[in-house]
Specification:
Number of helices: 11
Strand content: 25-35%
Shape: globular
Number of domains: 2
Pfam family, one: Methyltransf_33
Keywords: Methyltransferase, Transferase
CATH superfamily of the largest domain: Vaccinia Virus protein VP39
Strand order of the largest sheet: 1-5-4-3-6-7-14-13
Structural class: alpha/beta
GO molecular function: methyltransferase activity
InterPro entries: EgtD, EgtD_Methyltrsf_superfamily, MeTrfase_dom, MeTrfase_EgtD-like, SAM-dependent_MTases_sf
Radius of gyration: 20 Å
GO biological process, one term: methylation
CATH architecture of the largest domain: 3-Layer(aba) Sandwich
Order of helices and strands: HEHEHHEHEHEHEHEHHEEEEEHEE
């Protein structure tokens, strides 16, 4: 009976009710270029598949970033403010934060994610391993809305350090990335910091293999989003009517993931509408923008953040950037 009392505090800050979210999803599917927001990848099965993707030989970002962190952790930690509030954006299972705790000794850990039950269980594991550390969860779609002012004010004198690893910033188109980073900047005050990972430009064959592995795990991950849409809209997508396609769009410097209709057919979107898909018609499911070092530093600057230092791997395939308010 005492277990619930021992769970980390959880705040819910979701702005849009479920019905509005469904309307946004439906609207995307009915556009001339049908689109599904990449946040719908991450149901239980999607999370399992993404974990498997991170272990693939072709998927370099996770291990490359981990190598950078392992090699430079102490140097990075020395540049962070003391008595910080560590804000893990999209914390998932909190494993990355767990690896940082011995080096940074924060005053508090704040996990921010859209999946409430998973967030609380992940933070509970952090609290179990670090019983003297306050852990708080915030359930929100932080890519659309971020308001942590009241929470951060509970710890005056403890500046926030926002932690956004894994190159997820690449899922935003550049203008949207600037808007998102400005929301982080607005929370920083004079002493806050942002520690962020970004994927860098590299040969096309390396990029495309990372999003279309030989074992088909990424294909299954992409196709699984149709099962999520079926549940959200009571739709009748048949995943076998689509195939996975990923390619590097050089003009826009991004990898694009699509689902391609293998035949002409119609889908019932839960009685709201029917959507016809012609053979070879695409549904866009994800962008993953890639940057040069100078381009990403310029993106930070446009967001009101100065890149104080950055670290890369020997091949310059991935960058970890430490930024502070301008």
């Amino acid at each position: 009976m005492s277990l619930a009392l021992d769970l980390p505090r959880l705040q819910t800050a979701l702005r849009l009710p479920a019905q509005d979210e469904r309307q946004k999803l439906l609207h995307g599917l009915l556009q001339p270029q049908a689109r599904i927001d990449s946040k719908y990848f991450y149901d239980d099965r999607g999370c399992e598949l993404f974990t498997a993707i991170c272990l693939l030989d072709e998927y370099y970002p996770t291990r490359t970033e981990a190598q950078i962190f392992n090699q430079h952790r102490d140097a990075i930690a020395a540049l962070l403010p003391t008595n910080m509030q560590w804000i893990d954006l999209g914390c998932g299972d909190c494993n990355k934060t767990q690896s940082w705790l011995p080096a940074i000794s924060p005053a508090r850990v704040v996990g921010v994610d859209i999946a409430g039950e998973f967030l609380q269980s992940s933070l509970a594991e952090v609290a179990l391993q670090h019983p003297q550390l306050e852990c708080v969860g915030v359930v929100t779609d932080f890519t659309q809305h971020l308001d942590l002012d009241e929470l951060l004010a509970e710890r005056p004198g403890a500046p926030p350090v926002f932690f956004y690893p894994g190159s997820s910033i690449g899922n935003f188109e550049p203008r949207a990335a600037i808007r998102f980073l400005r929301r982080i900047r607005a929370h920083c005050g004079p002493d806050g910091r942002l520690l962020i990972g970004a994927d860098l430009i590299k040969p096309r064959d390396v990029l495309e293999a990372a999003y279309d592995d030989a074992n088909g795990v990424t294909a299954e991950f992409n196709l699984n989003v149709l099962n999520v849409v079926n549940r959200e809209l009571d739709a009748d997508f048949e995943p076998t009517n689509f195939r996975h396609f990923a390619h590097f769009n050089e003009a826009h410097r991004r990898v694009e993931m699509h689902l391609v209709s293998t035949r002409s057919h119609s889908v019932d979107l839960g009685g709201h509408a029917d959507r016809h898909f012609g053979a070879e018609e695409h549904i866009l499911t994800e962008y993953s923008h890639k940057y040069s070092l100078d381009e990403f530093r310029a993106l930070l600057a446009a967001s009101g953040l100065r890149c104080s230092q950055y670290w890369t791997d020997p091949q310059d395939w991935f960058g970890v950037f430490l930024a502070e308010p301008i």
